[in-house]
Specification:
Layout lengths: L1 H17 L12 E9 L5 E18 L2 E6 L7 E3 L2 E17 L6 E9 L2 E2 L10 E11 L5 H6 E10 L3 E5 L4 E5 L2 E8 L5 E9 L8 E6 L9 H74 L2 H22 L13 H5 L6 H87 L2 H17 L15 E10 L20 H8 L4
Parallel strand pairs: 1-15
Antiparallel strand pairs: 1-2, 2-5, 3-5, 4-5, 6-7, 6-8, 8-13, 9-12, 9-14, 10-13, 11-12, 14-15
Helix pairs in contact: 3-6, 3-7, 4-6
Length: about 500
């Protein structure tokens, strides 16, 4: 019997250990959270409160608070450990809780220097000189990282231009509001910041600095459709450029091949032309020698003709002397054939005279031929020499043409190599940009997702609050004021609600 009881108790104990404690907890009500914090002038948190906002009805919330307070009406709030319950008919219900332990997502460090030396914040009121305010924002590793990773932080400080001149701060959005100059900064999700503000101040005072954290909402088309469409056109243009480069490369390759063939042909022509030029030079030299010989020969023409005519005249004088008394007329080269023909007695004389006349006529014909040859040789020599000179000039021109072709061919080869590298570059560019549209669209989505936040909204107060629609952070430092000389104590009514006190604390009426 004792064994049965022991076994039963063991089962009950086991079941009690395995049933989660949350089984008896009610589901959290949908809500919004606003985290308020008072920061010291050095940026260190001095107080943290959370205002929870609900719609009407039965409300269940969770949070480990040292105290809670109804900021809306007199409806009682029940606090049972970390479970807070309230039933209200208010359209919007607010209650404030002070967490037992809370870590802000950001660490703030604010330092001040006056005339180059560090100065305590408590000594700034009424100070004069060259003031620098240094604000450093970093992630608090002790806090839930989702807020730092998903929330943007807006920092704002206000300087009175009657007290502050030559205000300088890189990266600030500056707005003028009467005598005040408002400096605003945006720290994107997941980022820290280092901000420096400088000014020349006198009788220095400064309103509270504010730090507001919230999910960033971008009022813009987050698809990037217009941009990616243009990138698609750019990728198509780059593809066309690559195709054009390929066509240009083929054209230059053909030009280079044609130029090589042209140089080969020109080189063969140059070699043959040189042989022709050498032959013409030899011809000109030979013709010049012939001309010289013919001139020498022609210079003997008159003597030869004179001798031949003298021989002929002597022959006729001898024949006329021998035939004297025969009654024949005086024989001459023009009549002797008619006078002596048909008379056998004078056949021998006629034969002798025929030979003399033929010899004289032959000498005259020979000398005429020599004169004509000498004249033709002179013209031929002049032509050959002119052709030789022309061919020499043409040979130089052909050589220049060939040399120019060699340079042009080298330039085309360089162009071909350059185009090859260019084509390689366009191919790489084409390959690198073919998916650019989709890649950039993804990067835009990732960027905008990173800016606007990608994680589900978490509760700052308790992980049990799984129905939180928004969490907002509102932090303010104290002010820097010159103490009033009037020591009279003002009396004011102390019947304001805590909510009114919170709003007043942050300058909201």
């Amino acid at each position: 019997m004792k064994k049965i009881v022991s076994a039963t108790l063991s089962v009950i104990l086991l079941l009690s250990l395995t049933i989660p404690a949350s089984a008896s907890e009610r589901a959290p009500t949908e809500k919004e959270e606003v985290v308020y914090a008072i920061l010291g002038l050095d940026g260190q948190p001095e107080r943290i409160d959370v205002v929870n906002i609900f719609n009407t009805g039965d409300i269940t919330d969770y949070g480990d608070y040292t105290a809670v307070e109804n900021l809306t009406n007199a409806d009682p709030i029940t606090q049972n450990g970390d479970q807070i319950s309230v039933t209200t008919s208010a359209q919007r219900f607010y209650y404030q809780g002070t967490p037992k332990a809370a870590e802000l997502p950001w660490n703030f460090a604010i330092a001040y220097t006056l005339d180059g030396s560090e100065i305590a914040p408590s000594a700034l009121a009424g100070a004069s000189g060259a003031l620098s305010i240094h604000i450093r924002v970093s992630q608090n590793p002790k806090a839930d990282s989702s807020f730092f990773s998903n929330d943007a932080l807006q920092i704002a400080l206000t300087l009175n231009t009657d007290l502050c001149q030559n205000i300088v701060s890189d990266g600030a959005t500056v707005a003028d509001a009467g005598a005040d100059k408002q400096l605003s900064y945006i720290v994107l999700p997941g980022k820290g910041a280092s901000i420096t503000v400088t000014a020349d101040v006198h009788d220095f005072e400064m309103a509270a600095m504010s730090f507001n954290g919230i999910r960033l909402v971008l009022n813009m088309d987050m698809s990037g459709t217009a941009l990616t469409a243009q990138l698609g056109k750019l990728a198509d243009a780059i593809a066309g450029l690559d195709d054009g480069a390929a066509g240009l490369q083929d054209g230059v390759r053909q030009l280079s091949d044609g130029m090589t063939q042209y140089l080969d042909s020109l080189n063969a022509y140059k070699s043959g032309f040189k042989d022709l030029s050498d032959g013409v030079s030899q011809l000109a030299s030979g013709v010049s020698g012939l001309e010289s010989g013919l001139k020498d020969l022609a210079s003997q023409n008159d003597a030869l003709v004179a001798g031949a005519l003298a021989s002929r005249q002597a022959a006729f004088d001898s024949a006329n002397a021998a035939l004297a008394g025969t009654g024949l007329p005086t024989l001459t080269p023009d009549n002797y054939s008619d006078v002596l023909s048909g008379n056998a007695a004078f056949a021998t004389v006629k034969s002798q005279l025929d030979g003399v006349v033929s010899f004289a006529d032959g000498i005259i014909a020979y000398t005429d031929g020599v004169s004509r040859l000498a004249s033709g040789a002179s013209e031929l020599s002049g032509g050959a020499q002119g052709l030789d000179i022309s061919l020499s000039q043409l040979d130089a021109a052909v050589q220049g043409l060939y040399d120019g072709g060699v340079k042009l061919s080298a330039a085309i080869s360089s162009l071909k190599e350059g185009l090859s590298e260019y084509k390689s570059g366009t191919a790489q560019l084409r390959d690198g940009t073919k998916d650019m549209k989709n890649d950039v669209a993804g990067q835009i989505d990732d960027l905008l997702l990173g800016i606007s936040g990608s994680d589900a909204v978490k509760s700052f107060v308790s992980p049990k609050n799984t129905n939180v629609t928004s969490v907002q952070f509102v932090f303010k430092t104290g002010t820097i004021d010159i103490p009033e000389k009037d020591t009279a104590v003002s009396i004011q009514e102390n019947n304001a609600t805590f909510w009114e006190k919170v709003l007043a604390l942050f300058g909201i009426k």
